[in-house]
Amino acid sequence: MSKRVTARINLAALVNNCQQIQTIAPHSNILAMVKADAYGHGESEVANVLESYVAGFGVATLEEAEALRDAGINSSIVLLEGFNFPHELAIADELGLDLVIHHWDQLELLLSSSFNGVPKVWLKLDSGMHRLGFPIESWPAALERLKETRFSASAICMSHLACADEPDHALNEQQVSAFQSVVEELPNAKSIANSAAILSRPDLHFQWIRPGIMLYGVSPFGVQRVLSEYEPVMTLLASVIAIRKVEVGDAIGYGASYVCSQAKRIATVSIGYGDGYPRAAVSGTPCFINGQRCEIVGRVSMDMITVDVSEVADVQLGDQVELWGQNIRVEEVAEFCGTIAYELLTGLTGRVNYQYLRPPQ
């Protein structure tokens, strides 16, 4: 396999990040989010190394859950969007999944089924995000309906904050108040904290926390609050494949969108939007070559980018280029691209070679 682009995944950093999360929420169970191929890091590899550190894993699809079981994961797996049809429920039963229930049709289908196992049921309240969940006026009735069944003992009360990455947003308090109004007196376990809430609202840790992006050493708050105590797990690398001198007035790349105002030395690097590097990256987006920050110039093409290496005296063909990772935070790259780190991490394509650095035994 060609290694023109490599995502180097530091599994020791992943474990350290997980342990740091447990330190700040010592009384909470960790449901580790590994949906979307573990945020682009490799679902099976991530789950295998984390299994002994967490209480379970969160996935979005049955296919993701099946991949975990095929990889030998025996821990609890929570199907975050639940199921919609009887055949999906049968697959969930076969895989031994725990289930998020967020509307009446799901609940009645579960209760009328011949589900062999007794999964944990995560009953979801729509506390104000208006995406998934029982409305606040019908949520208590859903819980009462569940209590009549064999699934009641393990029911977990959950919701999700729309603006947790903006700690001062007024909707946070409105949602917390709504959640507390229906669950506060219940003996059931509770869960509302994603990465941003884990960091900013220790009062919301409850019995279960649901870390996602922070597990991978990336801040849910973007460049405004980089998590210096968490180590980036992914370093995205490509190679210098050409070096040339350009003169004043020379244009670089598609559309001639970048015109040199002075003579420069330009390195062409083996990564583009065909690999998942964002086409939205503008001139000035940083990368890292031979110990120095450099800047992309011109448009990102399908297979290549061009970088100003005028100040890197020793750059040579084959030199590695860090697009994000230890030296260039993916949060910063996302800022230049007008997006979020989540999109960059999950957007890598099948052309990228993955290299896993395993923690010491």
TrEMBL record:
Active site: 35, 254
N6-(pyridoxal phosphate)lysine found at: 35
Catalytic activity line of the entry: L-alanine = D-alanine
Cofactor (UniProt): pyridoxal 5'-phosphate
Domain of life: Bacteria
Keyword Isomerase: yes
HAMAP family hit by this protein: Ala_racemase (MF_01201)
Biological role stated in the UniProt entry: Catalyzes the interconversion of L-alanine and D-alanine. May also act on other amino acids.
Protein known as: Alanine racemase
Organism of origin: Litoribacillus peritrichatus
